[in-house]
Design a protein that fits this description.
Elements (H helix, E strand, L loop, with lengths): L2 H10 L3 H30 L9 H7 L4 E2 L2 E2 H27 L4 H4 L7 H32 L4 H19 L6 H27 L1 H12 L12 H12 L3 E4 L4 H10 L1 H4 L4 E3 L9 H6 L7 E4 L2 E2 L7 H8 L16
Parallel strand pairs: 3-4
Antiparallel strand pairs: 1-2, 3-5, 5-6
Helix pairs in contact: 2-4, 2-7, 4-6, 6-7, 6-8, 8-9, 10-14
Length: 332
């Protein structure tokens, strides 16, 4: 190589991959954003996807395609848009600089530019997260849903491409920081992904989460209601009787066990504890409720605590059948 060629090469600056990695990443992210935007709209409108195989619609209608009540594709769209922004930010800043500075003043190594360095690290973090998540989705595709989705495979390829370009697209000061950052990000994303999808694979977890979302109901009632229990519950409701209770209260549970599952649903009950289903702690406080359960019958509040059905029948003036079938606990 001649001396002139060497000088010319030095003037050229960084290797071509350094100069073109960001435009390439921006282009890939733009394609990903368009595709995921289309899938988001398709999911929200309930339409069918334009796909050569039916697997795309199967995946889009599966429970794995929804996260926190929103389409998974929406989160993919936001990720691609974020990657696109990180990729083009230094290029836009550099263009504005070159408009007012000489070419000599702006020609420097990418690692000398703080914006280039920080966005480069964030691109690597984002690409690593997308790669790990895409890998898990490929696992779901192969072993759980067991179908082929062109869009999913395409997104995995784009995520892999972004990951490779984020590593090769700039000069790194040390491999140690890169490796440790990648491992930490990958572990966090994997653990988070497993936690998000755990309810789908474990119905018991899903049931507990749904209960927390709707409000705690307390222990499930195991007894059934006979004719007398149902008649007494209807009588109490008709005369305006109210029972104030808390989902965590053991005495409230005993009271419900005496009525049975079917009769309890007919009672006019007020949940007083924060976190309970349809809780009204303010109302309970206004009524002066200090213990649970507290019955208010004919405008009169009874001392707190579970009552036998015979007691409730006598206090409320109930005249119906009284052959109550559920055994009374020994401590009542």
């Amino acid at each position: 190589m001649t001396k002139q060629a060497v000088i010319s090469k030095r003037k050229t600056g960084n290797p071509w991959i350094y100069r073109w990695s960001r435009p390439l990443m921006a282009g890939i992210a733009a394609i990903g954003a368009v595709v995921t935007a289309y899938l988001t709209i398709t999911k929200l409108t309930g339409s069918s996807t334009a796909c050569p195989v039916n697997g795309c619609n199967i995946v889009l209608s599966s429970p794995y395609a929804t996260v926190f009540g929103l389409p998974l594709a929406l989160f993919g769209f936001l990720a691609y848009v974020g990657m696109m922004g990180l990729a083009v930010a230094p290029l836009l800043v550099k263009s504005s600089r070159e408009a007012i500075l000489s070419e000599t003043a702006t020609r420097r190594r990418s690692t000398d530019d703080p914006l280039e360095a920080w966005t480069g690290l964030l691109l690597f973090v984002g690409a690593t997260a997308m790669l790990v998540f895409s890998g898990y989705l490929m696992y779901l595709l192969a072993f759980k849903i067991q179908t082929v989705c062109v869009y999913c495979v395409g997104s995995a390829i784009m995520s892999t491409s972004l990951f490779v370009l984020s590593i090769l697209g700039r000069k790194w000061d040390g491999i140690g920081q890169l490796l440790s950052t990648g491992v930490i990000v990958g572990m966090v994303v994997l653990v988070g992904t497993l936690a998000v999808y755990a309810p789908i694979d474990n119905p018991a977890i899903a049931e507990r989460q749904a209960q927390r979302a709707e409000g705690n109901l307390g222990s499930p009632i195991t007894t059934t209601s006979g004719e007398s229990e149902l008649a007494l519950a209807e009588h109490l409701t008709q005369i305006g009787a109210v029972v104030y209770e808390a989902y965590w209260c053991p005495h409230c549970f005993k009271q419900k066990q005496l009525f049975g599952k079917e009769a309890v649903s007919r009672l006019n009950s007020i949940e007083c504890a924060e976190g309970g289903k349809d809780a009204q702690p303010g109302l309970c406080q206004a009524e002066g409720v200090q213990g649970y359960p507290t019955w208010k019958i004919n405008g009169q509040a009874l001392p707190s605590g579970a009552k036998t059905l015979q007691e409730l029948a006598a206090i409320s003036g109930y005249q119906g059948p009284s052959n109550f079938q559920n055994p009374v606990p020994a401590d009542l």
